Amino acid sequence: ATNLFLNVMQGTGRDNDNLPEVTSFGDGEFSGFRMNDFVILFNTGENATDKPVTFTPPGTGKVKLLVCGLASGSWQIRRDGQIAAAATMVDSDEGVLYFEGENGDFELLR
Predict the structure, then answer these.
(1) How far, CA to CA in Å, does 98 sit from each of 13, 17, 27?
(2) Which pTM was predicted?
(3) For residue 71, how many C-alpha atoms fall within 13 Å in the half-sphere facing its CB?
């Protein structure tokens, strides 16, 4: 059995009670959260994946997405079945993919 924990730390002033809402989501293989327009998704496996990754962040509107734990190389980004970016490179040292756009149903393909 494996337990996974995701901690989101928000730094504010002492008198600030207006913390942004944090919503978690995922399918087990990838888990993440959305806070305001930021979406961060983590590979929960031990190794970087080169398999297709599909996810739908909660909420609507423009988002800034960071997907961690991807194999190096060229990835295609699809949103709602349409190609959003034909070839986006993932560096072998970082294993992350960053992109921005409207929220929707995302699919990342090698």
Answers:
(1) 29, 30, 20
(2) 0.90
(3) 13
